[in-house]
Amino acid sequence: MNKKRIGVIGIIILVLLGSIVGGSLYMIDYSLRPVNRGKDMEGSMQYMKQTYPHITPWIDSLQHHHALRDTFITAPDGIRLHAFYAYASRPTRHTAVIVHGYTDNAIRMFHIGYLYNHSLDYNILLPDLRYTGLSEGDAIQMGWLDRKDVMQWIDTAPSLFGDSLKAVVHGISMGAATTMMVSGEPLPDYISCFVEDCGYTSVWDQFKKELKSQFGLPAFPLLYTASILCDWQNGWNFHEASALRQVEKCQKPMLFIHGDKDDYVPTWMVYKVYKAKPEPKDLWIVPQTAHAESYLNEPEEYTHRVRSFVEKYID
User: Fold this and answer.
1) Residue 287 burial class via C-beta count within 10 angstroms: exposed 0-12, middle 13-18, buried 19 and up
2) Residue ranges of the chain assigned to CATH 3.40.50.1820
3) What homologous superfamily does CATH list for 37-202+241-311?
4) What is the pLDDT of residues 255-296, one digit of tens each?
5) Which one of 6, 58, 81, 165 counts the least CB within 10 Å of its CB?
6) Global pTM?
7) pLDDT digits (tens, 9 = 90+) for 90-105
8) Cis bond leading into 221, ω under 30°?
């Protein structure tokens, strides 16, 4: 093989490597730094009132009485994190920590805040995850780094609601994956149970599915190199960010909810995490329901299912 041919092959290899790295960096920015509706607080409030009109009087009442409050904490890496909170109508230790989804924010979980605060009369704490709402951060963390932030909010809850609280952690979509990731960690005794609504099995599985459905591409090589670059940029990789492995370690009760028409976080994922989770657990597959629309489609049944579940473990 002559030197000219070797040089051509070398150039081709360099171009391919450059394309793979460039594509992987694009994938990370596309996935973790998207145009973020979660930063639009006013638009998020308008969306919630239009989509869930029955919660508007509750929101207006909280705002009128200055009962919807802001609080901030600082994570160990210096990132300032925000949450909304509100007290129940009477002193109670019953509390819900409510975790939002991908490119959403705490406001976009006010329908679940309504469920707990208005329908069940719980205290509520709704964090803005990193890169959303009023929280700082330079990228979405897909639940894995967020689990540590939620654990810090859990540790903060007694200072807001009292030392004797009993709490549920309830998340939707990425917030559900975060909830499952939290569930595998050592937690205070006052965390009594979990509700996960349409969470994914792992970041790897979700990104693999999106790479195929959006771009028609296989996992190799982009997903592998993007995972390595994410580890370099953010300190975690797509394989370790696994809700599936976390629920295997969870000994506390969990309610799993998923729409049977979900093609964003495919319905098959809930069966895998449900099977992996030790007892006690419960599962509700919501008929004719797409991603994150279970409460929207079945608000009364959703409230009944959640109430029945949490009442078994929060006294």
Assistant:
1) exposed
2) 37-202+241-311
3) Alpha/Beta hydrolase fold, catalytic domain (3.40.50.1820)
4) 999 999 999 999 999 999 999 999 999 999 999 999 999 999
5) 6
6) 0.95
7) 999 999 999 999 999 9
8) yes
